[in-house]
Design goal:
Layout (H helix, E strand, L loop, with lengths): L1 H13 L26 H13 L4 H15 L1 H9 L27
Helix pairs in contact: 2-3
């Protein structure tokens, strides 16, 4: 039994792993940013109800809805590709780079 365990550990290390934990750690969450927006009261109510429906938070619903929008809008993808060197999508702001950026450059008050 002990020899089998040693072989498992050796195989695991050879594959690039470093532990034999039975429970894997949670995936690292991406950095988040705060965004303040004004929306109609009926949209807010539906947002809250949808979040309750999927047993999540309004923030999660908004983030996922925006990801869906960004991924499905071909014209936006094209535009984004043309503006990859703009100040909003730059190496100095890596969290803004790509299609999944949720940061609004015009923070609403």
């Amino acid at each position: 039994m002990r020899r089998r365990m040693q072989l498992c550990v050796q195989d695991r290390i050879a594959e690039g792993g470093n532990s034999l934990s039975l429970v894997k750690p949670p995936p690292k969450k991406p950095k988040s940013a705060s965004l303040q927006v004004r929306i109609d009261a009926d949209i807010r109510q539906k947002l809250d109800l949808y979040a309750e429906f999927i047993e999540s938070t309004p923030s999660y619903v908004v983030a996922e809805a925006l990801k869906l929008l960004f991924n499905r809008d071909g014209e936006f993808k094209h535009w984004l590709g043309q503006h990859a060197n703009s100040s909003l999508v730059s190496e100095s702001n890596p969290e803004l780079k790509g299609e999944e950026s949720l940061v609004d450059p015009f923070k609403l008050a």
